[in-house]
Amino acid sequence: MDGVIMIRQETEEDFRQVQEVVRLAFQGVEESDHTEHLLVERLRRSDAYIPQLSLVAETDGKIAGHVLLSEVKVVSGSDVHTVLSVAPLSVLPAYQRKGIGGMLLREAHKRALELGYGAVLLLGHEDYYPRFGYGRASMFGIRFPFDAPDACCMAMELKAGGLDGIHGMVHYPDAFGME
């Protein structure tokens, strides 16, 4: 790695390379269903897709990483709140453990806040995401619609009070294939 990493918004010309980055990033992950690259394609065609929050990390003349934040709802009775979900965060295996994932995540958080979003949710590794400010979603009264360890179901406020009054069940868009 030559040390120069550029984080930028994904373009349509990147789609094929991003698909391969996402596929390879999850290839050896035991907890994965190995369809994350297909999820990215479905999300791009959905109402939950926010082009400004689909970012790539470019280095050595190629895309080494990708992150996508899309809209999800947190529902409690008649209360419906829109927040974001990180799904997925991907870095090519040869570039992992070099800080690229963190760079992508921090830039995505910054851009999401600039767009007016207050909070982000994710299902992820309990030893990785807390360093970026994520904590157990259950502490905010937020539940996920699948069976996963509580420590892996996380939430983060992008701004102070970003999750005030938000609690209930996460409802993913149809693109996630969950409901």
From TrEMBL:
Species of origin: Candidatus Phocaeicola excrementipullorum
Record-linked PROSITE patterns: GNAT (PS51186)
Domain annotation N-acetyltransferase: ranges: 5-159
Top-level taxon of origin: Bacteria
Transmembrane segments: none
Molecular function GO terms recorded: acyltransferase activity, transferring groups other than amino-acyl groups
Gene3D superfamilies named among the record's database cross-references: 3.40.630.30
Full protein name: N-acetyltransferase
